[in-house]
Amino acid sequence: MNDIFATLESEARSYSRTWPTTFDRAVGSWIYGEDGTPYLDFFAGAGALNYGHNNPLLKRKLLEYIERDGIHHGLDQATAAKREFLETVDEKLLKPRGLDYKLQFSGPTGTNSVEAALKLARKITGRESIISFTNAFHGMTLGSLSVTGNSMKRGGAGIPLVHATPMPYDNYFEGQYPDFLYFDRLLADSGSGLNAPAAVIVETLQGEGGINSSRPEWLRGLSDLCKRHDMLLIVDDVQMGCGRTGPFFSFEEAGITPDIVCLSKSIGGYGSPLATTLIKSEHDVWEPGEHNGTFRGNNPAFVTATEALRQYWSDDALQRSTVAKGERVGQVLDELVNTHEGTVAKGRGLARGLGFEDPDLAGKVSKAAFDRGMILETAGPNSEVVKIMPPLTVTDEELEQGLGIITDSVQAVTA
């Protein structure tokens, strides 16, 4: 790689260390090095590229918009692009599911959506404390970081991260205790020292935390607990929304309706920055301008987001495809688990993982896959899980090719 990156770019860079090449172009499920070397991308921009790189259906609309001098930067002004996006969200997502949400555009990334959700929950309830879960990841700004579990990332804050209390995620105690025994007891005990929480924030499937998938019954129990104790339920669907687990929203399978939903990453469709916070109508108590940001309305992203919803969420074809492809990944992972001790298969939909008792092996598998022409990330508190997240639009042939590379890489590393 060109030394300019080491010379001028901050030491905070990470992915460029994992995949030491200079990338230049990308199409669909493939990303190409500057020298033309192709890599099958099972990383998908950490979930920001559910529809693949430079999706031609979305690109056409984006180029048309730019060519006609469509509004690019508009703060939160009313624009034609935003109107079409809101109308399409209502038509394709909210009305078919019987959901009554208003959309807030707080800033361009997932952590902006989470910050708005936490701030609003405190305003609604008048309480300060937020409940999060072990191994959660919600963002790198201070509010989001306070409800994130990873000790290394928390340590980067440089100040105490307060007004947040972690609770055990689903199966944290491997089934030894009833769900919410500890949490429910603390809420009911006036001597527990737990301040009445404003809200609970949860990922239905923890991506960065290690591909930890919660059960539908656990989510229903959590929703019921929130109602009984007057806590708002916030679902962080930044990485697992937009169809990653099958349905558009990852909580649909559980049949719950969160008070607030955080969306980003693939909501923009094309990989452009866009985030929104979905708020139940009765909870939209903001004063005008009380929470804002310079880049809270990315109009080109509205254009591609609208087209993505029209192309992929007018029927259930993508959802069925994602579930089927996810089951195929699961079959291969189960085969690997059966032939390699110290491994576990994780996840659902097209958010899958292979966990290793020896955490060093996951990183070695990632490197072996890169050497074989594939982009694979690791996840978990000790980077012990190989994280498998291809674009949802990956073809069957590409999926099989990728699964072959993963199998070869695991075998090479564990031989």
Verbal overview:
With 415 residues, this protein is α/β, with parallel strands linked by helices. Helices cover 38% and strands 16% of the residues. It has 14 helices and 17 strands. A hairpin with a 2-residue loop joins strand 1 (23-27) and strand 2. It is globular, with a radius of gyration of 21 Å. The relative contact order is 0.16.
Quick synopsis:
The chain has 415 residues and is α/β, with parallel strands linked by helices. The protein is 38% helix and 16% strand. Strands 4-12-11-10-7-5-6 form a seven-stranded mixed beta sheet. It has a four-stranded mixed beta sheet with strand order 1-2-3-15. It has a four-stranded antiparallel beta sheet with strand order 13-14-17-16.
Text of the CATH class of the largest domain: Alpha Beta
Structural category is alpha/beta
The tally of domains stands at 2
CATH overall fold name of the largest domain:
Aspartate Aminotransferase, domain 2
Distance between the termini: 30 Å
Mean pLDDT level: 96
Described by strand count, sense and barrel closure, the largest sheet is: 7 strands, mixed
Strand order of the largest sheet: 4-12-11-10-7-5-6
Features:
four-stranded mixed β-sheet, Aspartate Aminotransferase, domain 2, alpha/beta, 38% helix, 14 helices, Aminotrans_3, globular, diaminobutyrate-2-oxoglutarate transaminase activity, pyridoxal phosphate, 415 residues, seven-stranded mixed β-sheet, pyridoxal phosphate binding, 2 domains, Aspartate Aminotransferase, domain 1
How do the helices and strands line up, and which of them pair or pack?
Blueprint: H1 4-8, H2 15-18, E1 23-27, E2 30-33, E3 38-41, H3 44-47, H4 56-67, H5 80-97, E4 101-104, H6 110-125, E5 130-133, H7 142-146, H8 151-155, E6 164-167, H9 181-188, E7 199-202, E8 205-206, E9 212-213, H10 216-228, E10 232-236, E11 260-263, E12 276-280, H11 299-312, H12 317-339, E13 343-348, E14 351-356, H13 359-371, E15 374-375, E16 377-379, E17 385-388, H14 396-414
Helix pairs in contact: 4-11, 5-11, 12-14, 13-14
